Amino acid sequence: MQTFGAFLVTLLAASGELASAMPSSMQQPRGSTPPTGGVQVKVRPRTATTYKHPALAMAKAIKKFNATMPAHIAAIVEKHNAAVANLAGRATSGSAVTTPETYDEAYITNIAVGTPPQTLPMDFDTGSSDLWVFSSETPTSSVNGQTLYEITKSTTAKQMTGATWQISYGDGSSSSGNVYTDVVTIGNISVTSQAVESATTVSSEFTSDSQSSGLVGLAMSSLNTVSPTAQKTFFDNAKSQLGSALFTADLKHDVAGTYTFGAIDSTAYTGTIAYANLYNVSTSYSGYWTFQSTGYTVGNGTTTTTATASTATTSSGSGKKNNQEAAQQGDAAQQGDAAQGGGPGGFFKRVRSLFSGHQEEVRAPEPKNRKHIGARDAEEEEVSDFQKRATTTTITGIADTGTTLLMLPDAVVTDYYSQVTGAEDSTQEGGWVFPCSTTPPDFSFAVGSGSFTVPGSYINWTPVDTTNTTCYGGMQSDSSIGLSIFGDIALKAGYVVFDGAEGRVGWAQKTLTT
């Protein structure tokens, strides 16, 4: 077991469906140079093998946060499911089907569970706090090629008597099951008594993703749904083994990326890291990697739009909670979640009720530490130029590796697409679309005293069909959820620090893959 060291986990950057033949070896790949004391987990990327309408990414986010699914989105999901069934029949009869790729929909890495270790491909999710898996207890009707955690084959698996877990979704479905403790290893860091949640019921959304065996939740432990006692996340349990209580996400476009736990890799980014403190409109916000952006620009121009009520400027919370406390347990904040629905959904129901009933403005606390690593005068001038061009719009959202899209307030999204030739908010396609030949402008947003840019090429996300004529935007409205989500479209454009010790989120630019 590594002590007081950073370890590096290399992710699979998958387009839609993910690799079926995941390597069992946890060895460091050749040619890699992890931070001092780090170790890399070998993975490989793979493109999509089945067509998935891009609006399903919107549906997934809405469902994840227990929001009401708009009828036109639900219709697209139903149509997609029927089309998939039809394609399966055609494949059986020998017909060949050409399908477009779904770009960077999810990022997967291997973890090891049990003794002897069983390798499972998992989705790292900073928007939830449960480590749950497809297992030998999962009904065969809910298994679609996933690698299973074979409980009886692990000599260290122990069932937690009376413990259960359940994550409820906005469409009435849920994932739930029993709870065990077992050895979980990521990289070369092992937690000997990690809560491993075995699925006995699985939402169809997860069944359809044959390449992922479950989720590793990396939000705060206060959001964990295990009852009667919430359990700690892997990150919280591993903190004592890390040099620093932080982890970073270095997701990339269409190629392998990395997570680093315990250290910042100074070679992975350019310029400076801009930090924003974790933000709380109520004690409930301690559960997420929530931060405030205080301005944005579209391309090189200025904008005049003001954000809608989906930002956190209309909350009754004090916003004064200490940042370190916000990054720790906050278990008391989760009391009453059972009545609202477990997991992220119950939290967001409370947030939406806050937004609808109060109008006083709450300001984020001043950052404790405005230091930027390797700051240079030219970069400070660039930030100043951004501040001159940017709006003063406040956008409150969470950094969520488990959501694909960049989901922002209606007014911000409308302002952005007003500058994209041919863009329209399409009911038929379930969101903003535009000609694939269009080059959208960059989108920049403020982070602390700095700024961060998402290239327009990333917002030109994926075609809506096989003709490659109309593309679905990587930026969409958050109106169905009520809180902005900085998902993979934004995250893969930078190097992102999730700092549990200081209670903050950091963003830095990096050399991008095309």
Features:
single chain; alpha+beta; Cathepsin D, subunit A, domain 1; 2 domains; 5-stranded mixed sheet; disordered N terminus
Number of domains: 2
The CATH class of the largest domain turns out to be Mainly Beta
Describe the biggest sheet? 6 strands, mixed, barrel
Give unreliable regions as ranges: 1-32, 37-47, 87-102, 303-322, 328-340, 347-384
Strand order of the largest sheet: 2-3-8-4-7-6
Structure classification: alpha+beta
The CATH topology of the largest domain, please? Cathepsin D, subunit A, domain 1
Give the end-to-end Cα distance, rounded to a whole number of Å: 37 Å
Family: Belongs to the peptidase A1 family.
GO molecular function, one term: aspartic-type endopeptidase activity
Biased composition (Low complexity): 309-338
Domain Peptidase A1: 107-508
Provide an overview of this structure.
The strands form four sheets. A six-stranded mixed beta barrel has the order 2-3-8-4-7-6. A five-stranded mixed sheet has the order 12-14-23-15-22. Helix 1 crosses helix 2 (71-92). The protein is built from eleven helices and 25 strands. The chain has 514 residues and is an alpha+beta fold. It folds into two domains: 7-49 and 101-260, Acid Proteases (Cathepsin D, subunit A, domain 1), CATH 2.40.70; 269-509, Acid Proteases (Cathepsin D, subunit A, domain 1). Mean pLDDT is 75; it is low at 1-32, 37-47, 87-102, 303-322, 328-340 and 347-384. Strand 24 and strand 25 form a beta hairpin. It has helices at 55-64, 71-92, 204-207, 234-238, 323-326, 337-340, 344-357, 377-389, 410-417, 456-459, 488-491; strands at residues 7-14, 106-113, 118-125, 131-133, 158-168, 174-186, 189-201, 214-217, 246-250, 257-261, 274-277, 290-293, 296-298, 395-399, 406-408, 424-426, 431-435, 443-447, 450-454, 460-463, 470-473, 475-477, 484-486, 494-499, 504-509. The two termini are 37 Å apart.
